From TrEMBL:
The chain holds residues 175 to 395 of 395 of the full protein. The keyword Metal-binding applies. The lineage of its organism: Bacteria, Pseudomonadati, Pseudomonadota, Alphaproteobacteria, Sphingomonadales. It comes from Sphingomonas adhaesiva. GO terms for molecular function: FMN binding; metal ion binding; phosphopantothenate--cysteine ligase activity; phosphopantothenoylcysteine decarboxylase activity. GO terms for cellular component: phosphopantothenoylcysteine decarboxylase complex. This is Coenzyme A biosynthesis bifunctional protein CoaBC. In the N-terminal section; belongs to the HFCD (homo-oligomeric flavin containing Cys decarboxylase) superfamily. Its cofactor is FMN; Mg(2+).
Amino acid sequence: VLAGSVAKPLSGRHILVTAGPTHEPIDPVRYIANRSSGKQGFAIAGALAALGARVSLVAGPVLLPTPAGVDRIDVESAQDMANAVAAALPADAAVMVAAVADWRAEDAAGQKIKKRPGEPPAPLRLVENVDILATLARSPRRPALLIGFAAETEQIVAHATAKRARKGADWIVANDVSGDVMGGDANTVHVVTADGVESWELLPKNQVAARLADRIAATLG
Ligand code: CTP
Ligand code: CA
């Protein structure tokens, strides 16, 4: 190590991060989406790159600058995100921060649906999107460390613990979104692992990211 150089515990590692919402088209001008700013996922991608990792950031539609040293792949829909995740493998770890839309319109209209006064369109039929995290957990190319996020408004740790088991993730980072977390700059998170639950104090999103990146580095060794 050269004198004065900074230790890079994640150099040589490839880490996949998903972030932001997905947009599911209803017609060419309308979509279904989740409320997600992408800030926490982008901060995590940047923190991992700062520790020396090669980071593939699969980003839903957000207007955020790409963090330094991060390879960004922009996507729109959940299906696009699933394809981009598969194409970015293999990875040593994956951090799935994206707020993926759970459903999409069964038949997106090819042309703009026109407003007819007093005649709203037929109810939208929704179908379930692929669960990117659960699919990755069952894949032969599952990263050694697989981390999911869970935005909850109540029973945060209980829901996150159930989600961890259901999805086959190693850790679930649960955050309380009952306040103004969405789009805000701070986050209260609970890290649910096989060893139990670690609750962190309210922290700026970049400090949540730095702490999580350190924990990932320590775990990958
Ligand atoms: N996730 C995913 N693909 C989906 C839905 C969710 O990869 N189609 C990932 C998210 O990126 C997150 C984790 O799964 O890391 C949990 O997402 P969440 O929406 O909290 O879980 P769901 O199982 O969809 O449960 P619900 O929305 O009912 O709380
Ligand atoms: Ca969901």
